[in-house]
Specification:
Aspartate Aminotransferase, domain 2; binds pyridoxal-5'-phosphate; 3-stranded antiparallel beta sheet; alpha/beta; Aspartate Aminotransferase, domain 1; globular
């Protein structure tokens, strides 16, 4: 542990001043403080190590006085901000304890108990795995050779018993994005037959101008649910807050089964995060810079990769990911797990500039 790291760790463990805790740059420059045993650089879960911003830290501390109260009465401002951002009403918004809660809630409500769900494979599995646990049959439709959702094949799997069709766009773990018109017409046509869930966890990272959110369909009153999260660009993965957007009758139905709901700190953190444009822009810029560094390394190594519309990059190593993961871990960097059947691909998240430099060094050593 370097002396700087050690000092940071002691401060975060409670010996330091509040001022240091309130300095986002300090934590961001040494994210390995969470992995004190191994000091691993964690580029495995698509987090944003620059968060939370200083303004958000201060807002959370200022909300301490309210923590003795139940949080439901304090949701209004955030709901209004979210509704305004998407051109919807507060009746279209359900705040959840991380979008994972919304994914599970929807899988359970619409897809479980003997119903079928259609989803791509590989895809982010929170919704499908949870619904399967409660008796859903999951149609796992392999992604195409371009690693995109195969929308035609997904459409063919829809039956009268389909409770929901899950689309993750941009997709995790592939980082791909569907062509705008194709995505819109698929969701629109499928929503006439069953519910469509559009997971937009990485929407903020999309650089294609005017790329449509499926909130456009929610606005039209279609049978569509959209999920968003504060875990990625806002850097709030640990505080657990996200939201669902859907027609008021769908929101009402989902609200009946919600279990956790966001806590007070999360609500105040999210309100401030939405106001903090400087941090938002910095996060996007840093992500872009990190991806460019990773692309450059992959080009030097001659490895195939998918241009990413997220905060991670998916690339082909040609070797079993377990072997690659262990070798890169030995260099101090944790990369993503296996995403079967693409076992010779590797998913790495962007981190701080320093972290990405370490990653690129490790990649060059292990993959040359
Ligand atoms: C596609 C996708 N959706 C949802 C989530 C979960 O986000 P949250 O932290 O809001 O539960 C993730 C997390 O990595 C993700 O990749």
């Amino acid at each position: 542990m370097s002396s700087f790291n050690r000092r940071q760790w002691l401060q975060l463990a409670g010996y330091g001043s509040l001022a240091t805790l309130l300095t986002p740059g300090a934590a961001a420059s040494t994210p390995s403080h969470f992995a004190k045993a191994e000091e691993l650089i964690r580029l495995s879960s698509n987090e944003n190590p620059y968060g939370p911003s200083q303004r958000v830290r201060e807002a959370m501390i200022a909300s301490f006085d309210k923590v003795c109260r139940y949080p439901s009465r304090y949701q209004q401002e955030l709901k209004e901000m979210v509704a305004k951002k998407h051109g919807l009403t507060t009746a279209h918004v359900l705040l959840v304890a991380g979008s994972t809660e919304g994914l599970k809630l929807c899988g359970l409500t619409y897809g479980a108990h003997g119903k079928e769900i259609v989803a791509a494979d590989p895809v982010f599995k929170a919704l499908t795995a949870y619904a399967e646990h409660f008796g859903s049959y999951i149609h796992q439709v392999p992604v195409g050779a371009d690693l995109q959702h195969d929308l035609e094949a997904m459409d063919e799997r829809i039956t009268q018993n389909t409770g929901l069709v899950f689309v993750c766009n941009p997709n995790n773990p592939t980082g791909t994005i569907l062509p705008a018109e194709k995505m819109k017409s698929f969701c629109s046509s499928v929503s006439e037959r069953t519910l469509v869930f559009s997971d937009e966890a990485y929407f903020d990272y999309i650089e294609i101008p005017n790329y449509p959110s499926m909130t456009e369909l929610v606005k039209k009153g279609d049978n569509v649910v959209v999920s968003r999260t504060f875990s990625k660009v806002y850097g709030l993965a640990g505080i657990r807050i996200g939201y669902l957007l859907a027609r008021p009758d769908i929101i009402q139905r989902l609200g009946q089964s919600i279990m956790a709901r966001p806590n007070m700190l999360a609500i105040f953190a999210a309100v401030e995060a939405m106001k903090d444009e400087g941090f938002y822009k910095m996060s996007l810029a840093k992500n872009k810079e990190g991806k460019a560094m990773i692309y450059q390394t992959l080009q030097e190594l001659g490895l195939e990769y998918v241009p990413s519309h997220t905060n991670f990059v998916f690339f082909k190593t040609g070797k079993d990911i377990r072997e690659i993961q262990a070798a890169i871990r030995a260099e101090g960097v944790l990369v993503g797990r296996a995403f079967p059947p693409l076992r010779d691909w590797c998913r790495v998240s962007t981190g701080t500039t320093q972290e990405v430099e370490m990653l690129c060094k490790a990649m060059k050593k292990v993959l040359s």
